Amino acid sequence: MNVELVLEALREAFPTEALEPRAVPVDETFVPLPPDCVHPAVRILIERFGLRHLSTITGEDTGSEIVLLYHLWHGRGLTLRAVLPRDGAHIATLTDLIPGAAFYEREVSEMLGVTFDGHPDPGTLLLPDNWDGEPPLRQQRGGVQ
Amino acid sequence: MSRMTIPIGPQHPALKEPVSFLLTVEGERIVESALRIGYVHRGLERILQNRNYVQNVHVAERVCGICSHAHTTAYCQGVEALLGLDVSPRALYLRTLLCELERIHSHLLWVGVLAEHIGFTTIFMYAWRDREIALDIMEELSGGRVAHAVNVIGGVRIDVSQAQVHAILARLDELERQIGTFLDVIRHERTFQARTRGVGHLSAEQVRRYCVVGPVARASGVDVDMRRDAPYAAYDRLSFQVITADEGDVWARAMVRALETVESLHMCRQLLIGLPDGAPSLFKKGHSDGAPSLFKKGHSDGALAARAPRRVPPGEAVSRCEAPRGELIYYIRSDGSDRPARIKIRTPTLTTLMTLPDQLRDIHTADVPAVLAGVDLCIACADR
Prior knowledge:
Mean pLDDT of chain B: 87
Mean pLDDT of chain A: 87
Structural class of chain B: alpha+beta
Radius of gyration of chain B: 21 Å
Oligomer: heterodimer
Number of strands of chain B: 10
């Protein structure tokens, strides 16, 4: 995968966004994107570059926002980084483009309370069915417990 | 025909670990299935946030009871990248050696499980007997059969003597002869073929849709292997073949895994014979700087492990490696303290679990054990 070509295509598709890629060890490029651009960006990656392998989705509550990292791989790592507000965090599902995103989205959803709009089978993945507490990976008031 | 729903699990004799399948059947045919995991969810990602980097090596080792070394490899590699630590070539070779021994043990364990599931108890007994050879070697090297505690941040904590190298090479020859038996059975045994051919079929397209990795992907003709595609540790210095098959059924998965075991044996030999020397051995005495030979401050400089600082500078790392079941990924973010701010683990089993509803559709209930065994589930790994 030629990262430069991918970035060029993304810049072309989202001319108003300042895409500042960042090299991350071991062999990864992080590309920040607004949440509503993630789905169209993945569509471009699939259609133009055949990049269909989503390794996983990392979700993190930094205390002020929710960060989602879509780790893609195609010979090299490419991670799309989207930042969501902590309250009412939601983003479009990728399951229509990559069915393999289903479990990862469910996990982020239950662990961090992010809603994936259009997910065909939402619900808990690892937590018990009767879980009624806070999403467990959310930072609690007063820092991580 | 009326429909009936049969629960399999979370506790069931056909399952090695707790996972639940709800099969809807019409007579003997399965029309639909639902899957539930999470019965052994231990909250490990949260636990990793609450321990320091050194303690986390031990936590990562316990994510999985089979591919424990793959987890510490991915974890240590990520932390080493954040620290900018250089790992000595000898340590990388030893790290890779354990990776391959672990793959041999995992694949042979799987051959046994599959054989038992399809009622071929003889091969189950042989496979688990021969797997002991790999376990014995790992025990001799590290003191642990399953949790080896070989990896430390900055290198490894074991060394191997020349006498051990010769002893291990002899045992690897013995193991290779035994694997020949399994290959014969997979290729020619009629009952084995009858129970595995055409069962649990996954096309290359399905593999790509669900982002499946490892031997299951390779058995469907998808040529992916992190050891070759994104070489880590000492893999760039080894010559090996990535085994693929086109059939995409349980038989192809057996073939791929058995042949991969042979490849792993060849890799172990290359690693042992080509083991770079010049590294001060653990057992060597009298160092000018007085530091024990295992650890040397600041940089590796030939020591088996560089001494890593407790605090890790702020940053992020994504570490991938090829566990016995496929691509394993660790995301690590440091906030500059001695504890990681976030660690995300995705184990290969999670990808294969997503394919099970497809694999279980329109098959006979008698084939369910073969399908479940065929994908080599590691539920504790997937649940974390």
